[in-house]
Amino acid sequence: METEEGGSRGAKRRGCTFQKNDFFPEESFKSWGNYGKALRETPWRFKDRVMTRSKDETEVVEMKGRSGNEMKKTLNSWDLIWFGIGAVIGSGIFVITGLEAREVAGPAVVLSYVASGISALLSVFCYTEFAVEIPVAGGSFAYLRVELGDFVAFMAAGNILLEYVIGGATISRSWTSYFATLCNHHPDEFRIIVPNMNPDYGHLDPIAVVALIAIATLAMCSTKASSLFNNIATILHCLVIVFVIVAGLINANPQNLTPFAPFGARGVFKASAVLFFAYLGFDAVATMAEETKNPARDIPIGLVGSMTITTLVYCLLSLTLCLVQSYKEIDVDAPFSVAFNAVGWDWAKYIVALGALKGMTTVLLVTIVGESRYLTHISRTHMMPPWFGHVDDKTGTPVNATIAMLTATSVVAFFTNFRVLSNLLSISTLLIFMLVAVALLVRRYYSSGVTTKENQVKFVVCLVLIFGASCGVSAYWANSDGIIGYVICVPLWVLGTGGLWLGVPMAKKPKVWGVPLVPWLLALSIFINIFLLGSIDLDSYIRFGVWTLLLLLYYALVGLHASYDTAKDFESLSNITTNQVHDQDLNHVEQGLQTQKTTT
């Protein structure tokens, strides 16, 4: 059977090879005349992509077939738990805790982690229900395509890829910092300093690039091998974390917690918005659903279990750091190593640095695994060229997508300081998590042909109240110290959520595992994510706006037309197949009748 790309499903290809029509095989790009016609049809095509929804079975069955080969199902719940812990612990706690504690929240950074952890756990619930129902490599991109349509899914996809590129770049640069500490050098001694260049971009980091290449090579070889490496490294990392907590409490000085919140509640939530970066990684575990042996059982255990453990560990580690050293003296590059050095435990900084390196190595591994699977599934829809969606027949891994994401991440890591990156990363992450919560509300309360017009109107009104109230609280928090805004907006949020709970019947219930207390927990997830978005600085939103404009430009010129053509080709193929089956059924009936007449 032929795919839309015109190739055979069973054709065996190795990664990083090129064939005709690997990049722009669609009808719209076969000539300049076709492309001009496609551009003239942009408004109608855009309307079609906005209104059309994918189906669960399309994502689970048809999309996987477009990769040529299937990914190997080798992971169980323990693999997912260790992947989850390895993916998350190491990124935030060893990268930006020092910066946020020193300049934004003080010792109250522990409360920032609590707030971020609650929001992340609510998002984990959403991801878990979706991953069980739609176990594919596309993660949130696939979920949004099913519930909110291609356009929303594409905009989210662009931010997902940005999130992973920035996350990988940030962690790899911090990897250099801790490696320098382990070698008893200052991090900048291992970087190339370009004179007369903005320090945010002029500290070139070749070691970060080498680390990324080495880890990506392992990820391309085998998912199971990556899992085994992650498990061993994470166990060693956990032993180091236990050491840090015990040794830190031995050297604790409670006076360092005074003042506890020097920057006030505003500082706590501002830090919380940035520290959401620390929980980046669990969504990468959701992309491994396609490689999980029993998604219905393993994914809930893996996602919820790893996030619960992670939140507890983050709170303990951040509290320990602030007990060992005054927040004013915390080093922003390697906070834990320098803190032990400050109390006379010079030897301990090497253990901490080694543990941090192990933690960040596993985070980079899972980041590379996750981002390549996202790009693979996005490419299956042709929103990105289908070449990126190829799965290598020997390794069972998406080699092309891995190399592409490695290249982008390496370029950013080589040039850019993580202070510039962290806030922009949090905007993308919070936006995606909010959209996933909205998509799950749509999945539960709206179904074409089931939900009545009256209930559709009620659902939209309630959703507008939830959104409006959440945005109102976020804006008021960012611009005022009063309480009148909360007095107005919070009751509106309760009204919207309560109206949805009491006035709109559910159109669909989960088959295996579902988020509890719907719609309250989903509405709370939307509220917290929007609230935290209001705590991020203006410059980050300007950078985010530029990125959004670039995404819109690409979608209007390329992504829209490629995905439109592919969808229409698939519909035509499905209709042909349906007609063939129908004709075969008619032939069988006619043959039966003829046989019956002959017998008579």
Characteristic key phrases:
mainly alpha, disordered N terminus, 21 helices, two-stranded antiparallel ribbon
What does this structure look like?
With 600 residues, this protein is an all-alpha fold. It has a domain at 56-65 and 74-443: Amino acid/polyamine transporter I. It has 21 helices and two strands. Helix 2 (42-51) packs across helix 21, helix 6 packs across helix 20 and helix 9 (206-221) runs antiparallel to helix 16. The radius of gyration is 25 Å and the shape is globular. The model is unreliable at 1-11 (pLDDT under 50).
Dominant shape: globular
SSE order: HHHHHHHHEEHHHHHHHHHHHHH
Mean pLDDT, nearest integer? Answer: 81
Backbone structural class: mainly alpha
Approximate helicity band? 55-70%
Q: What is the straight-line distance between the termini?
A: 41 Å
- % residues in beta strands: under 5%
| CATH class bucket of the domain at 56-65 and 74-443 | Mainly Alpha
Number of helical elements: 21
In CATH, the homologous superfamily of the domain at 56-65 and 74-443 goes by the name Amino acid/polyamine transporter I
Please give the number of β-strands.
2
- Rg, nearest Å: 25 Å
The CATH architecture assignment of the domain at 56-65 and 74-443 turns out to be Up-down Bundle
CATH topology value of the domain at 56-65 and 74-443: Amino acid/polyamine transporter I
Strand order of the largest sheet: 1-2
**Largest β-sheet summary:** 2 strands, antiparallel
| Uncertain runs | 1-11
Keywords: Amino-acid transport, Membrane, Transmembrane, Transmembrane helix, Transport
Subcellular location: Membrane
Main location: membrane
Membrane topology: Multi-pass membrane protein
